[in-house]
Amino acid sequence: MKSTNEFISAIRLVSNPDGTSTFEIGKIPTLKRMNTTAFWISTATEEWEKDAHTAPRRQYVVTLKGNILFKVSNGSTFHIEPGIILLVEDVEGEGHSWEMVNGEEWQRLYIPIADHADDFFVQD
C-alpha cells in the first residue's frame, strides 16, 4: 500500500455478524478533522494482548515504531508498520491477535473515536 497526498493507507479490523473478525484494506483522508476523545502513547506490551481479544473501543492505532503481524478469526493475516493506520472496530466477538515481527518494541499512539463519530475509512 502506498500513501498519497490526499489519503493515508489504513487497515480496518471489524466484527462479522457471526462473531468472527475480519479486516478491510483501504485509506483515510488527510487533513480531515476527526471526532476523537483523547489520545495516549504506549510502548508496553502485556502477554494477554497477544492472545485473541476484542478491541476495548473503536480507535485508531498509529504505529510509530515496529512491524506487527495481525491475525483474524479465519487465520488471515496482515502487517502494520509506520505509515499504515490501524482502525480497530472489532469490539465484539472473537477479536484479533498480533505478534511483533521484527524487534521487541511496538511504539504506538491510541486515538479513541468519539461515540457515533465517522471513522472516515474508505475501503479499496
UniProtKB/TrEMBL annotation:
GO MF entry, a single one: DNA binding
Keywords: DNA-binding
Origin superkingdom: Bacteria
InterPro entries from the UniProt entry: HTH-like, RmlC-like_jellyroll
Protein name in the entry: Cupin domain-containing protein
Organism per entry: Chryseobacterium vrystaatense
